[in-house]
Amino acid sequence: MDVLKFLEAPTTAVYSQDYIVLDFETNSVEKGNPFNPDNSIVLSAWSTGNNVNHRFGSEYSIHDIVQQCEERILVAHNAKFELQWLARAGMDLTRAMVWDTMVAEYVFAGNTGITLGLGDVAARYGLPGKESFVERCIKGGVDPSDIPKSFLARRCRYDVYVTEQIFKKQYQRAVQEGKLGVILTRCLLTPVLADIESSGMIPDPAKVLPAYTEVRDQHDAISTELLKQYPDVNWNSPQQVATLLYDVLKFKEVTDVRGNVIKTPGGGRKADAPTIIALKCRTKAQKELQALILEEATLSTKLKFLTKLKLCCENEGVLHARFNQTITKTHRLSSSGTKYKIQFQNMAREYKSLFKARHDDWLVGEQDGAQLEFRVAAFLGQDAVAVADLRDDVDVHTFTASTITSAGQDTTRQEAKAHTFKPLYGGSSGTAAEKAYYEAFKQKYSGIADTQQRWIDEVLRNGKLRTCTGFEFFWPRTKMSRSGYVDNTSSICNYPVQSFATADIIPIAVVYLWHRMKAAKLQSFMVNTIHDSVIMEVHPDEVNVIKDLGVDSFTHSVYNYLKSVYNIIFNVPLGIGSKFGTHWSEGKEEKLNVEPS
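Given the sequence above, the corresponding structure tokens read:
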């Protein structure tokens, strides 16, 4: 299917076309990892309409299946897995149009966190459960190639049959609930993620090793200082540390909101680093110990990360992770580390510069939706003041700093950044000066504040909130206390903004950019996407092309897609920030606002 042409005028009607339902059974090395050369496809099963077929053989024997997957809607449960094997078999992933039954069920579930295994989903639709013998064998570590062929074929054929039945029921449900557009958006991203995962990111040994050595030496120095000051304490013994804390230094144990002392699961006194950092200090000795423990814990966390990165440099030299499409409550992506257990989504800013491009003289490029969540909040609240500030490029962090300072708490613009958008997420706790700022934010951006209050009222009435895309969040037991506080206020204020920004708009932008880069046959390629951004390895001759494609993809294409698929007229200017350097997050950032046409 020509997906790039489809994206010129996207429509959910695409799902009424011919489809193929597909399931692979593979060798079990690393759970069937398609990037491991020791793995292969053992069995393929597929259906093009209530007629299940199967074939034993490797990925080199499925060329006819690949061709059908390029021409039809591909239906699969956890389709990213099948797509990566199809790519290994020669499929052009830019031709993949997907309905992932796991992703679709996740859309229906909203933020409720239901189980999404094929058997679990089948049971919810009144379909038979999985064949138990083969399931037990695979979970027990038996390689599928060693399972009797008749048993394996029965399992794989079942998976295709039940996936097809689920697809049909989900399609009807999506039409009835007005959620076809949300499913389309989520599933358009799946082939992109399947491709990005194959690339991985490259840690730079020239930066990683010195960083590791520095942190290791700092950690050793802190550990030595702890031993010097408290030579009789075994820091690996919780009992000895507890004795030092509570009997020698006379700390008071941490209590919960009701004043009850918080104990270990076994009833002992808590003596882990987070507990020590949370203890209230009254003496100089207490403060000195707490400061040492805080520094040791911080350095220990850094050292664990850098040790893993150092090992990666010394071995494969490429760091891989998996993207998860069905984990978070807001529906934005998360990720999981693979061999080195380093995930790609919440990496500390200080570590980004440790990554480089794999080719000499290439650059690492990053493009993001500048101030995207504020823009989304301005749109959802139709807040004229917020829109004017965006158009006039008003520095909102300066407003934050001046408001907090005027309320009696001196602060800098940089320090104030942590508070600027806290009201967008329902945040209200803090010092008196910080609370004064939160109130000033609500007064200044009354359109946003009033809209958030309407969301809260809707959830109180109905236990759920339907967003502008048709997606629904559920808070069925939300109540108001006697003091007027409403349960789940933070998530009710946060989820609609974060979800629309990073589970709809950014995936749309990334999908368009990926397809355009492929269509232009660029050498540059994507290696990661994080919340509101995409990271690429960029050939130096293609920087300007990437900039131009990024502008179209993050702005004009988003406007067009939102109108075509959701009937949303997004009347707030979108922005894009671009940065290119020898390492990730380095280089001068260029920002651009683009008005909706």
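The chain has four domains: 3-199, 203-314, 319-372+500-594, 375-468. Try to locate this feature in the token string yourself.
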